[in-house]
Amino acid sequence: MADLTRLTAAQTAAAIASGETSAVDVAQAHLDRIAAIDEKVHAFLHVDTEGALAAARAVDAKRAKGEELGPLAGVPLALKDIFTTEGVPTTVGSKILDGWIPPYDATLTRRLKEADVVILGKTNMDEFAMGSSTENSAFGPTGNPWDLTRIPGGSGGGSSAALASFQAPLAIGTDTGGSIRQPAAVTGTVGVKPTYGAVSRYGMVAFSSSLDQGGPCARTVLDAALLHEAIAGHDPLDSTSIDAPVPAVVEAARNGDVRGLRVGVVKEFGGEGYQDGVMTRFHESVELLRELGAEIVEVSCPSFTYALAAYYLIAPSECSSNLARFDAMRYGLRVGDDGTRSAEEVTALTREAGFGAEVKRRIMLGTYALSSGYYDAYYGSAQKVRTLITRDFERAFGDVDVLVSPTTPTTAFPIGERADDPMAMYLADLCTIPSNLAGNAAMSLPCGLAPEDGLPVGLQIIAPALADDRLYRVGAAVESAFTARWGHPLLEEAPTL
Fold this sequence. Notes:
With 497 residues, the chain is an alpha/beta fold. Helices cover 39% and strands 12% of the residues. The protein has a single domain (4-303, 387-486), classed as Alpha-Beta Complex (Amidase signature (AS) enzymes), CATH 3.90.1300. It has helices spanning 9-18, 23-41, 49-64, 107-114, 157-164, 181-187, 221-231, 249-254, 276-291, 307-322, 343-354, 357-369, 376-399, 422-426, 433-438, 468-486; strands spanning 44-47, 76-80, 118-123, 170-174, 190-193, 214-218, 262-266, 295-299, 402-406, 441-449, 456-463. It has an 11-stranded mixed sheet, sandwiched between helices. Strand 10 (441-449) and strand 11 (456-463) form a beta hairpin. Helix 10 (307-322) crosses helix 12 (357-369).
């Protein structure tokens, strides 16, 4: 049989269900791939070999008994190290949780297990999901499989790199300001931020509670849809969880068609700061949509120009509150507890040693923005901008079915290039942040390689809240057309490590 690591998730599940291969053989092939190349890529923080093989054996036992297998039974997955996993380390890329073993599963983790997905391990990430490059991990950066000297995006660079290097056919990410979509764009993979509240946040370590959203990462649109369907749905353990049916995302991915759709091109996403090759591929994608039968409309969303500033007040404010729980008293790292120091001194020493520079920066920004005398001027004003952005989306979706833009202004930049320039780093999320502020659904999928550097470019598709199926309908049509004309930019052209 063909290399098991090169199959899509849908192909893998079908091969296991038919008996063409076994779940154990599939898991072992991916574990072997990880052992062979991850020392160079550093996509994983923890590989759960024993747990993965046990889960795979359970799938094979079900098939042997004649039990019907689910759509993703036996398919390996790389899990971002922000979701609690019982008995498996969860660090969130931070020294402050180094060595912590959660006693419970996040709802998303539990749903993956119930779907018989084989979790290979936990992937590297920017500490507490704060970053756009995975350089802020306390455990070292991850390399982009297209060029190991470049970033794989962030904060979920470990998940995107695992996909692009064929260490896993599926992965999970989280998206607070673009942390699923931006890594997908720069690694030539597919990443989806579902509607806020569509995927449970219970057991997902919080960064910014009104923005955080877990979602699927894959190499194809259909694979992402299958994973989306497995993890989405109401959860009474999450007070922000939407109590509504999951949109028919798999059906949409199997029947991609844009004929008759009105597609809006966001005027504000382009111009100075956008790489020429990125814009070339984006404009080609727009013309492709036109050829496929969509009506193209230019849309102006003027408040989007203030999204970055609003985000970097709201997200740090919420993180300063959420991260107050890391006090060295209940779990995680504890420094300086020699019996002579007060609890306050131990907490301060632990936070100094346990939090990295970017986390400290955001905690300080957020604490300042929430402080007496500044709350209305900063946090309050940012929330008003958030309302204006939501209204821009509402007006736009009154005229069009979906919006499109580049996912990120540039291709993957070299590791270290923006490490000492936070503002330059933050600009990587220019196109993705508005959807987090408004809570609507968005996807990034590959739209070719930039001519000047040969690196992947992402097309972003944005849909209204609870219309996640539109992402898959449009994404599947674009993916099919691209593959027919030029070949899939990842499945056929990714460099071999």
